[in-house]
Design a protein that fits this description.
- Helix 1 packs across helix 5 and helix 3 runs antiparallel to helix 4.
- Helices cover 33% and strands 16% of the residues.
- Helix 2 links the parallel strand 5 and strand 6.
- It is α/β, with parallel strands linked by helices.
- The two termini are 30 Å apart.
């Protein structure tokens, strides 16, 4: 992030919130500027549970309040690191979402992420809260959905089994993460029914 005062790049942004509004502070020159520190909404969960499809519906439904974006748009080039927590990918999304929210609308990010992959980066201070809602579904349904995907997407047996393990992890650990993740089972839900729940989740939290 580049300071508007001295032009220095920082990997550890500082935000002060003890006044009437949040202020972004440069650690090099002390330059201060107002900063919109809004909530971030992470619509997460395993591949095949409906995040991308529901996200497309939410773009229009939430257009009056939020910016809805698909996380996989940046799963490219040097950011595409399937090992570990993909730090460059995670930090880039936090910075981009923080930039988008300066327009006055919070971001709904649709893509697989768990709280430990966002909560411990320096960019976390750029958001008031990060709310997580994880979509899940029954293992046999998830397996069938992933098997039905086109071959170019690479969903072989090993990769499908890994996603089923993650699906189970989400179901068991959702209430234990910090912060906890909400759970929404999409096994028998239509896209519109799932979108109804997610829209109400976002709007309800914005009204608090």
């Amino acid at each position: 992030m580049i300071c508007a005062g001295c032009g220095v790049w920082t990997d550890e942004p500082r935000v002060e919130t003890d006044g009437p509004g949040a202020v972004l502070v440069c650690l090099s020159c002390g330059h201060r500027e107002p900063f919109r520190r809004l909530p971030l909404f992470a619509l997460t969960g395993p591949s095949g549970t409906g995040k991308t499809t529901v996200g497309r519906v939410l773009v229009e439904r939430l257009s009056d309040r939020c910016v809805v974006v698909e996380q996989d748009l940046l799963w490219v080039g040097a950011l595409r690191d399937p090992s570990g927590d993909s730090p460059a990918f995670r930090q880039t999304w936090l910075r981009l979402a923080a930039s988008l929210q300066q327009n006055g609308r919070p971001v709904v990010l649709c893509g697989t992420v768990a709280p430990p992959q966002f909560e411990y980066w320096p960019e976390r201070v750029l958001f008031a809260d990060i709310h997580y809602l994880a979509l899940t579904c029954a293992p046999e349904v998830l397996r069938a959905r992933l098997r039905a995907r086109p071959a170019w997407r690479g969903w072989d047996h090993r990769r499908i089994e890994e996603m089923l393990e993650f699906n189970e992890w989400v179901r068991v650990q959702a209430s234990r993460t910090v912060p906890p993740m909400g759970l929404l089972d999409t096994t028998r839900s239509t896209v519109d029914q799932t979108a109804d729940v997610v829209e109400n989740w976002v709007r309800g939290l914005l009204a608090v």
